[in-house]
Design brief:
Elements lengths: L40 H11 L4 E7 L4 E6 H17 L7 E5 L4 H12 L3 E4 L6 H11 L3 E4 L2 H6 L4 H4 L4 E4 L11 E3 H4 L17 E6 L9 E5 H14 L7 E4 L6 H14 L2 E4 L6 H8 L3 E4 L1 H16 L3 H21 L7 H21 L6 E4 L6 H9 L4 E6 L6 E4 L18 E4 L4 E5 L6 E2 L3 H7 L6 E9 L5 E6 L4 E2 L5 E2 L1 H9 L4 E7 L6 E7 L3 H8 L10 H9 L1 H11 L12 E6 L19 H7 L1 H6 L5
Parallel strand pairs: 1-11, 3-4, 3-5, 5-6, 6-7, 10-11, 10-12, 12-13, 13-14, 24-25
Antiparallel strand pairs: 1-2, 8-9, 9-18, 14-15, 16-17, 17-19, 19-20, 21-22, 23-24
Length: 633
Amino acid sequence: MKHLGSLVGLFTGQGPGRRELHLPERTRDAASIALGPRTTLDAVLRERVRRSPDAPAHLQFDPSLGTWRSFTWQDFAADVARWQQLLRSLALKPGDRVAMMLENSREWAVFDQAALGLGLVTVPLYTSDRAENVGFILRDSGARMLLIGGEEQCRALETIRTVLETLDAVVALRDPEGPRPANLSLAGRLLPDVAGEVAHGHTRPEALASIVYTSGTTGPPKGVMLSHRNFLFNVQACLRAVQVSSRDRMLSFLPLSHALERTVGYYTPIAAGMTVAYARSISQLAEDLLTVRPTILVAVPRIFERAQERILERVEAGPRLRQRLFAWTLASGWEAFLHEQGRGRRRWSDGLLHPLLDRLVARRVRVRFGGRLRFAISGGAPLPEAVGRFFLSLGVPIVQGYGLTETSPVISVNRLEDNEPTTVGPALPGVEVRVGSQSELLTRSPSVMMGYWNNPDATRQVIDGDHWFHTGDRACIGPRGHITITGRLKDILVLSNGEKVAPADVEQALAGSPLVEQVLVVGDSRPYLGALVVLREAALPELARAAGLEPAVRSANEGARALRRNPAVEERALEALQPRLAHFPGYVRLHRIALMDEPWTLENGLLTPTLKLRRNEILNRYGDVVESLYDRH
């Protein structure tokens, strides 16, 4: 996700020109498919092909042609049939595990459907994951084959080549140059030229469909076993909660290895007949939004946070009049949102002024999302309240949802007509929720996982005798059913005076500072709270000047390191962050902070593939830094 900064192109007004894609007309018989309890994932695809064979299923950029190509549902089925012939040639049998490590693409979906139709179990891998994690997953799942893209994955997995060579086959879409596993074959040489019939009748609704490994923020990843029924109940519940149709178009850029993108951005479009466009890359997302012009977007909060930052940077760099117009637009837009939701009365002046401000200011932001966006779903992590309010005020309809891999994954989502942005919405239809002991959120539904692969003890810890899944998240449920997540149960810090602090809440508040790129709060069994802080690039010279120091050497690593260690710089940073905690209880105050020399990334093993902090790993690696926060006490 290192290219998120390129999102500046979304909002500068100097982005690429719009080249809207024109698709063939839809067939009439493209209504959402009814998903009964005896349905399987592969059966849904076969029904979609029967109903609307010539309607567009996928859009994907073809680098060799330099243009976007449209693929029909019939094209999808033909490619699935070809891949099934390849998989049969490997003598795989129902229940065998097959892994894939691919970027988002229609090839990911084709392989998944081919495997599911033969009764195989897919094991998705993140292309950004560390080699040792991939090795663990391949061994733990007992995967018999691995599908990769090409050279990039070969290089990334070179350190576990011996693990790869224990598989029956490693298949690559593209010919990798350089070292490769001895058992690697090219897909193009194995795939038949002519497609046969799509296989069916090899699986059952209750059969295991996929083992999805969690990110492992506090230990090795656990394999979540999800059945066909798990996924399809969640798809059906999502379709009942949010109105979509075959006229909708989604832009897919979150990893399909993530359960949210897989269920909402891949399986749900098959049931509804929607078109899915696969973004070329995060770095080209701004241009892809203008070209694809999606009606639905699924993203993690960091995407919206970065977009907000870029918008505000440009506004603040402009003349005072522009800043005032933007502030008025936000204020009137928020009043309009509350009025539309039936939760506020619009002043007559706002009723007159808002349409003008919306046309002059807010519309420019919406155009950069493609200009046709009906709604955007934020999930995977909490959406900061200020970010949600910002975009809702600009007429970008963001709805926040909540779920876990173990629940296939969606548990709740706000509705467009009943959107409380500080909550994650009410539960999906058919999903039960309640608050248990220690304010833990519990849920029960047919979308709760079968269990953890090879780990019955861990399964018993989270699914009780009454089939309630214990989420590990603290929550409260409002009078109208809206759920508010208040923190992680296991992440509670207990200060030495007995006071309890949810670090995630504090970290979210601190992350709203323009100084902060990343932050981790510490203090368990300690007398006070401290924090490890990764500054944004422009923050260090600002703090140095505020401390009366000359940051002339900031471009040199040693000079920057010395500034971060300077007590006066640390003190200025602490002073700037403290007001962010003003609304917390008095004991929630930072007494010391440490400014880190490097960001926490996937490459150095301190982020999960879903960009969450590996808290235990950070604490272990920087244990001496944490101790230094308390050595003066």
